[in-house]
Each structure stands twice: as structure tokens, then as C-alpha cells.
Amino acid sequence: MTMQGFGAWLYETPVSTFIRDEIWIIPSVQSIHILAIAIVVGSALVSDLRIAGILATDTMPNVVIRRYLRWMWISLGVLLITGLIMAVGEPDRVLGNATFWIKMLLVAVACVITWLFRRPLLDPDFELEHAKWRPLVKPAAWLSLGIWIGVIFCGRWIAYTV
Amino acid sequence: MDLTALFQFLEETPLALAIKEGDSAFPWLESVHVLAIVLVVGTIAIVDLRLIGYASHRRGARQLIIELLPYTWAAFLAAVITGTLLFISNAVRYSENPLFLIKMGLLVAAGINMAVFHLGAYRKIAEWDDMLPPPLSARISGASSLSLWILVVIAGRWIGFV
Fold it and tell me: For the whole model, what pTM was predicted?
């Protein structure tokens, strides 16, 4: 089955039709999506500013990261759920849209970088000064923030590249 | 003063026309606007949650406010600039959009709420800096602020749907 065929089939399903017919669903789900983005990017920003040694330098990095990582993962869950609702409701808008798939790829990359680089930092015994890959931590933090910003831009551009 | 005439004038300026008729100016402005607002809401949420009584990455409320608010203001400035540019591209229609007017009202309310906090409970922050939860007036300010900004985002998203 092709992507187009799958999209056409999905479009006709009762759940997809319901999401589109109840006109309050998509704007409301989009609003929740935006608020969850605020939590993810706000958390990423504060964590990255700490890792970069710019903000909250009187607090241990693992304390800062631990506080925001939990918020990030919960909000990412909300983003996936709301995103799924939007995709199911309007498959024609996203499934054949390159911008959408680029966005999904960027999300995956940002999650992997976050997982790889922040989780070791959570361990209070982790000696950042002695880790072999220490020089990569700051660039990785800024890179993941940059990727989240790219995700935001892709998200807005989906509507313009249908 | 006839505001409609003013808005008509604004949307006929070369700048406004360039945004309205350009290929990608509007989407790019929207994307930067989204990035700005997620940073405003994300950073304000950290402070507001602390005011409500949830510890952030540090216990002291005063230091949290001092270290985060510059980022909030910078992001807010970007939001106002991009928002103004978006507005002038279709000033008359936006000025007649009830959700746009509601959003502007909510922004004013958020500003007033912030002023009340800074002139009130914040003046005595040395007394309650470490308290969890803080005094009632601080908790109300935090809850009001968070609620208002969430409503700002929702109203902003609904502008495009009415």
C-alpha cells in the first residue's frame, strides 16, 4: 500500500472524519501542541544555558538537568499524542508532505542527542571533567536546542507546503 | 480618531504589502513569532510555577526571577516585533477579529498582573524567598500569570480559525 493509498484510507475512517467535523478539535489540539512545545523548548533552553555555564552556575548541572528532563519527556509525550490526533484528522496535510517528515526526523535526532548527552549528566557521580567526550557536551547541547528551533520552523511551514 | 483609517493606512505601507504579497515573508515571521512565544511562555512558566509553590532548579524565588526574566523580556520583544509585522500585513481584518482583540486584552491583563506582583509581593521577596509555598498573593500572581499566558497562546492560535 502506498503512502497516498494509506492516507486516503485513513481520511475516510470514522475517527478521522470526526476530528475534522468537530471544528473545535484541531485548533484546540494545536493549542495544546504549542503549549507543550513551550515546555520542551523552555526546558531545553534552561538546561543548555546551565551546561554552557551561562545560567545558574551556583547549582550543580545534574540538579538543573534532572528537574527539566522529566518535564521534557512528559511534554514530548503530549506532543506525540496531539501530533497523532492532527495527523489522523488531516492525513492529506502531512503524510505526503516532505516538511512534515523532515520535522519528524529532526525530532528523532533531538531526542537521541538529548538521551545520549543529558542522561549521563544526571548521575551525580559522573565526572564531567574526566569524561573523554567532555568537549562534545556543550556543542551537543546547543545543537539539540538548534534542532528544536528547526522543528518549530518545520512545524509552521507544514501548512505552507501542502 | 478613526482607527480603521489608521489600520487601512498601515496595511498599504510598502512594508505591509511586502509581507502580505511576499512568497515566504509571512510564514517566516510566523515561525519566529512561534519561537518567541514558546520562549516567553516556557520561561514564564518556570517562574510562575515557583510562585505557585513548585520548586524549580533552585529554591530561591528571587534569584530565579532575576536569572530568567531577561530571557523572557528578550523573547517578548521578538514576539511584539514579529506580531506587529504580522498584524500590519492585514491590519483591518485583524482589528475586526474577535480572537485578536481578546488576545490583546489578555496581554494587557498579563502586563497588569505582572505590575501588581512587582509592586506588591515582589517588594518583600526577601521575606518569602525560600518559602515553599510562598505567601498567598505571590501564589495568586503566579497562577493568574500562567493562566493568562496559556489563554494568550490559545487565543492566538484561534485567530486563524475565525
Answer: 0.92
Amino acid identity of residue B84, one-letter, is T
User: Exposed (0-12), middle (13-18) or buried (19+): which is A54, by Cβ within 10 Å?
Assistant: exposed
Count of domains for chain B? 1
Phi-psi region of B53 (alpha: psi -120 to 50; beta: other; left: phi over 0): left
Helix intervals (H) in A52-133: 61-89, 91-94, 98-122
Residue whose entry in the numeric block shows the C-alpha cell 475565525: B162
A152/B contact by beta carbon, under 8 A: yes
Instruction: In whole angstroms, give the CA distance from residue A47 to residue B127.
Output: 28
A1-17 pLDDT tens trace = 788 899 999 999 999 99
**Domain encompassing residue B148:** 3-159
| Chain B partners within 8 Å of A67 (Cβ) | 56-57
Looking at this predicted complex, what is its ipTM? Answer: 0.92
Q: Which residues of chain A neighbour B36 with C-beta distances below 8 Å?
A: none
Rounded (to 5) percent helix, strand, coil in chain B: 80, 0, 20
The separation between CA B50 and the C-alpha centre of its own chain, rounded to angstroms, equals: 18
What are the angstrom distances between the C-alpha of A66 and each of A69, A123, B8, B161?
5, 9, 51, 38
Quick one: which of A42, A36, A139, A153 has its CA closest to A102?
A153
Instruction: Give percent above pLDDT 90 in chain B.
Output: 90
- Domain segments of chain A as ranges: 37-160
